Amino acid sequence: MEKKQMIYEGKAKQLYTCDRDDVYVMRFKDDATAFNGIKKAQITNKGALNNQISTILFHQLHRHGIKTHYIETLNDREQLCYKVEIFPLEVIVRNIIAGSMAKRLDIEEGTPSSKPIYELCYKNDELGDPLINEDHAMALGFITEVELRTIKETTLAINQLLISLFDRIGITLVDFKIEFGKLPDGTVILADEISPDSCRLWDKITGKKLDKDRFRRDLGNVEDAYQEIFNRLHEVYHD
Fold it and tell me: How many Cα neighbours within 13 Å face the side chain of 141?
């Protein structure tokens, strides 16, 4: 697969055209950002580790019938993915209250939720990615009620699967955010990535944070934490 022109560069990934019109090459970068890009750094091997972690998790999702944009992993930093029209939404599930929700509602971090908390944020840097509801999303005009229903049902199914996958390797899935896109035929599928950049992952025994909070909160050993997640996943779920 020949990589050609870069068509998009985000905070952690780049997209390239290739010699097929219906796919693109997604490249993972070592860049790390937090607080809507205010805090920035380079973390050695982060891109390669996120690529490997996301590969394992997408393979598991496929095996359980979840449709995604992932096709195959090309090398240590790149994946081949279907082209999709991305919805400007961050879809969040919280199993344990942490991060912005704990701060926003003055709830002690680590408080379990009696059921998964489903949230939507409008992806708009100028507005600070505000929290919205489904009616807001439809009022913005980029999504239908049926598409929103598909996204919610798929997200909650992904949550249950990820809880089980991480539980098997001694990790608590605290929360995560994902993105969805639409194929040319209108099929709604999971896109982007699932990695310690987009999940809060705590060791079940020690409570140690093994995710991007180590960067956000200056806890150090960010690469080691990501490597630990990959090592545990690879030991159990390698092909």
Answer: 0
Closest CA to 139 of 118, 116, 120, 154: 120
CB neighbours of residue 127 within 10 Å: 11
Mean pLDDT by 10 residues, the chain (239 residues): 88 94 96 79 94 98 97 97 97 97 97 98 94 98 98 98 98 98 97 97 98 95 97 90
Q: How far apart are CA 54 and CA 168, in angstroms?
A: 17
What amino acid occupies position 202?
W
The three-point CA angle 203-208-213 to 5° equals 110
Alpha carbon of 45 to those of 22, 81, 127, 227, 238: distances in Å? Answer: 29, 21, 31, 9, 20
What gap in Å lies between CA 10 and CA 178, rounded to an integer? 15
> What pTM, to 2 d.p., does this model score?
0.95
CB 155 within 8 A of CB 89: no
Residues composing the chain: 239
